Amino acid sequence: MKEIFVKDLSSGKRIQGVFFVKNKVMAIDRQGKPYLIVLLSDKTGDVEARLWENVEHFSKLFEVNDVVMIDGWTQTYQGKLQIKLIKIMRSEEEWNFEDFFPGRRREKKELIREFNALFNMYLRDVYLIELVDLFLKDQDFMEKFLTVPAAKSLHHAYIGGLAEHTLSVMKAVVKLSEHYRRFYGESFNHEVALVGAFLHDVGKIKELSYEKSFNYTDEGRLLGHIIQGIQMVDEKIKSIKGFPELLRLHILHIIASHHGNYEFGSPKRPKTIEALIVHYADDLDSKIESFHSHMKEIRDTSDDRWTGYLKHYDRFLFVEPYESSELEPSESTQLEFFSDFDE
Ligand SMILES: [Fe+2]
Ligand SMILES: [Fe+2]
Predict the structure, then answer these.
(1) Which of 16, 129, 220, 285 lies 20 to 30 Å from 313, alpha-carbon distance?
(2) Distance (Å, rounded) from C-alpha 337 to C-alpha 322?
């Protein structure tokens, strides 16, 4: 069991404990000697650690995304807490990954209630209802689906992140469907878009493993969550008698195309309006959450108006939003736009 957390560390103490390895870099000091810079983390934060001795030996004993056992000393370097490592190696014990990732933002029960509300409100097709029901009743699936992060670091990287991301994409899809249905309703089916949004990332529960290390599984590396998701959904569809082939193709296509482009790992690009809506809702949702997290981190820790350079996005982000100066209530009742506009 994990006993020491990053937030409890203070300078000048011996420390023995388990941490998650976010990053590992080999560097060279002024004398030309190699040393190791390791970014350790848990659910309470990150701390940098350095190993100066036996570098070659220990660097072989762990990798990024492993949970490691460390022995070392805490010290302050340039105003920041750092760990001077004596030993570091992969922990072979099974660990509770809830200790290593930021905690869930919303309770499981609340998430389940929201999924149910959306399905009750918008689903009328018997086959889609049965398909959704098969997933909701699959306890093993739901347990993982409501617990795992959506990604290791890119977006929604906290307990329950996948379910929260999925729910948010579904809500965006509902709004977009309502908007576009008024004009182009004959060209798409909003129920298909909603169920497609629910299922778009289900393969992630198989893409990553959560024991010993938080990492891609062999199957995840070799197939990826899009193909794994298609397999999972197709398996359930096959168990539903009379499931229409056209509906099957529509649903599987949404999963196949949700990354939008070949270069982002989509085997297919969206070829239906439902798939287009899910792709953009997914892309927007993951980016907004990720932009927000980067901005919040800067706001919480400094007065800077810009984030550092974010390699993944190839840009800096501007942190300071404009705050509205609101009208007095009495003024707003008199507001009339276009008052001089000739009809
Ligand atoms: Fe995805
Ligand atoms: Fe997604």
Answers:
(1) 220
(2) 22
Tell me the CA–centroid distance for residue 201 and ligand 1, in Å.
Answer: 5
Average of per-residue pLDDT across 244-263: 97
In angstroms, what is the span from residue 147 Cα to ligand 1's centroid? Answer: 17
Q: Express each pLDDT in 26-53 by its tens digit.
A: 999 999 999 999 999 998 888 999 999 9
CA-based torsion, 199, 203, 205, 208: positive or negative? negative
What is the mean pLDDT of the segment spanning 327-340?
71
Write down the pTM of the prediction.
0.81
Q: Is 6-97 CATH 2.40.50.140?
A: yes
Ramachandran quadrant class, 44 (left: phi over 0; alpha: psi -120 to 50; beta: rest): alpha
Alpha carbon distance 129, 15 (integer Å)? 53
pLDDT digits over 177-227, tens only? 999 999 999 999 999 999 999 999 999 999 887 766 667 889 999 999 999
How far is ligand 1, taken at its centre, from the CA of residue 61, in Å?
A: 32
| Amino acid 332: pLDDT | 67
d(CA 103, CA 88): 26
> Which overall architecture, per CATH, does domain 103-292 show?
Orthogonal Bundle (1.10)
Contacts of residues 21-29 at CB distance under 8 Å and 24 or more positions apart, as own/partner, are 21/62, 21/63, 21/64, 21/65, 21/66, 21/67, 21/68, 22/46, 22/64, 22/153, 23/64, 24/59, 24/62, 24/63, 24/64, 26/55, 26/59
pLDDT of 212 reads: 60
- Residue 3: what pLDDT? 86
- How many angstroms separate the Cα of 339 from the Cα of each of 67, 128, 282, 332, 342? 65, 49, 40, 14, 8
- Of the listed ligands, the closest to the CA of 226 is 1
Using a CB cutoff of 5 Å, list residues around ligand 1, an ion.
201
223 C-alpha to ligand 1 centroid (Å):
13
Sequence spans of domains, the chain: 6-97, 103-292
**Among the bound ligands, the one closest to the CA of 281:** 2
Helix (H) or strand (E) holding 280: helix 273-301
Specify the pLDDT at position 104.
83
